[in-house]
């Protein structure tokens, strides 16, 4: 096999996710009443980036065969924290941003420590820590309120050179700064290895624990970036339980649409990003075609259910019934 | 571990008791500790009225946790609890608005709706082999969508039938709320099912190793599916009781039950990966969680602090005895 064939086999799912997104977006843009303009792109980019950050967070953990059901709550916590400290002069604002990112990474580190060194199940652990993060968010913001440095917020959600959405630029920057070096490093490869066969990776002397820990920390960090962006859009902080759990749910939907294997070891955060963009576009299609907004949650749920059912196609390839049971 | 000093060991021969004593003992120990702490805080804490009131509140969680436990015993998880609870409550109340026939059918309709959602969960998990965690999240979202469309996004106007209210708050036996009686009935049925029927023993077998169970001739896929149906029905029944207690259904009334139900099961010593656990442990877990919530609210700690302490307690207790084997 030639090199490009290996590359194609490894990135097949990501490419499918990109194609799905392009398909959805063309339908969306060509039916949008305002047509395909920079403003349409900017509005959809702003809504989608938020989910894209959380989806990356989720993908990085799922690749190690774990799951992080606290991403939405870390996002909520970061939102509430940002509405306190991302204010004032440019220097104070930057310090505030650093503080929010640090808080997110600490939340992720707590998850990682409990899962790896406490040896607890990721599902139960992250549901419980999610409750704790929500508690902290509620302590910070018992009532919705607060503010954010609006100059920065407008810059981060506006347009670069009058055309390109700034939120997309931020998303691309984060992918280049966080995901690309991570996935190419020894730790990132160990994370993939731990996801596909933990025992074998351990026996081959790979830094399995460090890789899983890094994955959880990055997940917390990326969720916090999502929370920062939520603050930039909304200008306020709010400890909303429903919105937090919705983001967790959507992050899993985006990861599934993005072709990341839920068993771990396959897929990429870039696929998850396009999964998030596609999922958001699907939600927006309803508005373009003038459906009652009441139907949106049902529609998104059905899309999620269908997306996860696609993985059942693999059953057709099973020759031995014992393979049903992992 | 420790040898015959507690009543638990009288039933040592029962299969469900094997290997779970430490966790169940710790859970009961924590209940005693909470009662002592509570009694120091306020004298009313040990009064029969207060304890029965707590048992009544615990009974809703108890019914829901019964289903959660069976699913966890299989080695699966049911994250659709929040909206199945809500759907059970809303559909029962909706049926109640159809005159006398509806009033009679209210409770069965609610349970049936939950069982239907459970059927989807079970079919996708058992026959399509999709991870239960993902499927149940998806059905949770679909159910939420259905309920939002049905109610128009507001709390429905229909109210609970007298029968539902009687089930939750009436007193068949003087001073003992019917909710507690219902839980006892469910508990006895669950213990019988888990320990004395092929179905129940198959659940344990599948939780230990589904391959081995399949090769021993158990129709594992059917059992997994039926267990999810049962769990869905029980969650919805919990919702029906809750609606009877509050005399109406409300949006997101089930949100407060996902973490407590899973926590109660796991704190009661049921292994998260399935195959091991006793119903007695789940009872202990349910009572423990209810008491903890009650004490936190008696001490007038705000919602934020309650969430924080609640999550922390669960993590710490799991670290004490819920750890997996080292790699």
If you had to describe this structure to a student in words, what would you say it looks like?
The complex is a heterodimer of chains A (326) and B (327). Chain A has a single domain, classed as ABC transporter involved in vitamin B12 uptake, BtuC. Helices cover 73% and strands 1% of the residues of chain A. Chain A has helices at 3-31, 38-63, 71-85, 90-116, 122-140, 150-157, 166-184, 186-196, 198-203, 208-234, 241-257, 269-288, 296-310, and strands at 159-160, 164-165. Chain A has a two-stranded antiparallel sheet. In chain A, a hairpin with a 3-residue loop joins strand 1 and strand 2. In chain A, helix 1 (3-31) runs parallel beside helix 12, helix 3 runs parallel beside helix 5 and helix 6 packs across helix 10 (208-234). Chain A is globular and about 60 Å long. Chain B has 327 residues and is mostly helical. Chain B has a single domain (20-30, 44-316), classed as Orthogonal Bundle (ABC transporter involved in vitamin B12 uptake, BtuC). In chain B, helix 2 runs antiparallel to helix 10, helix 7 (178-196) crosses helix 8 (198-208) and helix 8 (198-208) crosses helix 10. The longest helix of chain B has 28 residues, at 99-126. Residues 1-13 of chain B have low confidence and may be disordered. Chain B contains 13 helices and no strands. The chains are: A mainly alpha (326), B mainly alpha (327). At the A-B interface, helix 5, helix 9, helix 11 and helix 13 of A face helix 5, helix 9, helix 11 and helix 13 of B.
